[in-house]
Design brief:
3 helices, globular, four-stranded mixed beta sheet, alpha+beta, 10 strands
Amino acid sequence: MTTAQHRDGPALQINLLVLRCKELEASKRFYELLGFRFLKERHGDGPIHYASQDAGMVFELYPLFENEAVDNTRLGFIIPDLEKVLSHLEIANRHKIAGREVYIVQDPDDRKIELMERTTQPSVSSLASSAASNRAMYQT
């Protein structure tokens, strides 16, 4: 697998991720535990929500619309001080990918969240390899 490259790095990158949450405050606390810092926002007459730019992108938590189902989104984060974070969470599962421990926890909306310890700055190719391993594992 190859990654589209630009002279300044990868040509593509995620710049926005929005999650709809049943319990907005509980979700905010969960993601703050992972290291995100949120600001409360409201655009015009839209709903009050939380936004973070800590991961080099905009990560927003919005309230779930009435009668809207929670999605089946799966997220993964590489975070510092994983052991400290895990001491506050219930581990649903764990496995190894490319020799690294991956811990599965669930957010307040029951989304599966993969957590790995930040060791050194991961390369794009190592992240792509981990993503390919994840896809193969979850297709079975």
